[in-house]
Amino acid sequence: MVSLFEGGGSVMRVPRASEQIADRLRGQIVRGEFAEGEMLPSESRMVEDLGVSRPTLREAFRILENDGLITVLTGARGGPRVRLPDLAVASRHIGLFLQTQGTTLADLLEARTEFGAVCARLLATRGTQKTIESLDGCIQSQREVWEAGISTGARFAQWVSLTGDFHDLVALHCGNKTLAAQIMALAEVIGAERAVSIRVKSGSGASADVSYIPRMIADYAELVRLVEARDARGAETHWRDHLERAAEIVYRNRDRDSVLSLFE
């Protein structure tokens, strides 16, 4: 039974037993006490160890399943299997929130520019040889796609995917996990917006303008040079300029003041 305690004008709700169990298991999962894909102890064992009823335990499982932290499998070998937190799930919620708030495309890309410029500065300070190799490898793949010719929607989609990979690498190697998570979440939202744009353009029969691609590849190569030279200020300025140019390319096909439409 849920109890309420009043004091100082505030009301405190006591969590139900299922919520307390969910909190305990949630903590164990995020601390790494259970590995990705690992099965939690059997239901009968957990009922005994925790001293709760099966309905209470199953309600705790439903809470964790809604959090995306477990998947409850059915069958003889079923039970709750651990899933690690997925940034894509959080990104979808962010995208939904932004769309319901009437967020514009310009607003979204402005945020990417600001976050991305700081990330590039940190990258130049903290990047390693592995960072350089990863970025160079991505650029080489971009060059191969360009040199093979981007004459179909599939090839253009491949190019777009590689640009996303490059931005992801910049975020992942910047040395700040909080900033990287923010940038990666924005990247997921931008990717959803881009996918809608590509579907609309494909449906209209219009061909994509690819004349800007060599300049983009050159920008990526210049960022790598600045990172390798440990030029933090130069990397930040260059990447900000690049992201602003990239936004202007987006605005050729989408109204900058249009409200985000991510789930058409």
Could you characterize what this model shows?
This protein is mainly alpha-helical. It has two domains: 4-82, Winged helix-like DNA-binding domain superfamily/Winged helix DNA-binding domain (Arc Repressor Mutant, subunit A); 88-251, Four Helix Bundle (Hemerythrin (Met), subunit A) (Up-down Bundle), CATH 1.20.120.530. It has ten helices and four strands; from the N terminus they run ββαααββααααααα. It has helices spanning 17-30, 43-50, 54-66, 87-100, 105-126, 129-148, 153-172, 177-204, 213-228, 232-251, and strands at 4-7, 10-13, 70-73, 79-82. The strands form two sheets. A two-stranded antiparallel ribbon has the order 1-2. A two-stranded antiparallel sheet has the order 3-4. A hairpin with a 2-residue loop joins strand 1 and strand 2 (10-13). Helix 5 (105-126) crosses helix 8.
Describe how the helices and strands are arranged:
Blueprint: E1 4-7, E2 10-13, H1 17-30, H2 43-50, H3 54-66, E3 70-73, E4 79-82, H4 87-100, H5 105-126, H6 129-148, H7 153-172, H8 177-204, H9 213-228, H10 232-251
Helix pairs in contact: 1-3, 4-8, 5-8, 5-9, 5-10, 6-7, 6-9, 7-8, 9-10
